[in-house]
Specification:
By secondary structure, this protein is mainly β. The protein has helices at residues 64-69, 161-166, 184-198; strands spanning 8-17, 23-28, 40-43, 46-53, 57-62, 80-85, 104-113, 118-123, 137-140, 143-151, 154-159, 177-182.
Length: 199
């Protein structure tokens, strides 16, 4: 479980295929030396398990299912990724409850600079439109954000300068893909109501 509050940006130092069809990724990080084997770390919103680490980097492996349903397959050497270690009982929930289970990949369609921040419009497939609620929570590449506006076939988030400077949103371009995780409570409500309508 995570909060969607990014701890730092890590840099990809190596990516290679592994025999089972998956991918192994090595990431440079300031907290790598404090990791432990089996630790859960969110990488651009996708939960991964640490399989190796040293003082400067940690390594994770992604199976085919993860590569199909996230942007992890797009990672290249020197790519910056958003990192968050799993939540502990001593850590405040400053964002919202995030599972690290990506629901879908979506495309950034507009980035609009404003005087005090940025607006980002993200395309949304009609199958997921019931998951969007104005002023509700959503996770974009692991970042806990508030939905500013529900648009036709898209939604908008407003980015403050601190988030822009301390996440990889600042290097994103229109047309880039991002991982989305919808609010877990909202997902349960939508599924429950869907079942009730069939009774």
């Amino acid at each position: 479980m995570f909060t969607g509050i990014i701890e730092e940006m890590g840099r990809i130092s190596a990516v290679h295929a592994i025999p089972n069809g998956g991918q192994e990724t090595k990431i440079l990080s300031s907290f790598a030396g404090d990791c432990h084997i089996d630790e859960s770390i969110s990488i651009n919103g996708a939960c991964h398990t640490v399989v190796a680490f040293d003082d400067h980097s940690f390594t994770v492996q992604s199976i085919e299912e993860t590569l199909r349903k996230t942007t992890i397959s797009e990672l290249k050497v020197d790519t910056l990724v958003n990192l968050e270690r799993s939540m502990t009982l001593q850590k405040g929930i400053e964002g919202h409850l995030v599972q690290g289970h990506v629901d879908t990949v979506a495309k950034i369609v507009r980035i609009i600079p404003e005087k005090t921040g940025w607006l980002i419009d993200i395309a949304l497939d009609k199958d997921y439109q019931d998951m969007i609620v104005g002023r509700g929570s959503i996770t974009v590449d692991g970042i806990s954000l508030t939905i500013a506006e529900d648009l036709v076939d898209a939604f908008r988030v407003a980015i403050i300068p601190f988030t822009w400077e301390h996440t990889n949103l600042s290097i994103k371009k229109e047309g880039d893909n991002v991982n989305l995780e919808f609010d877990v409570i909202g997902k349960y409500v939508v599924k429950y109501l869907g079942k009730m309508n069939k009774i």
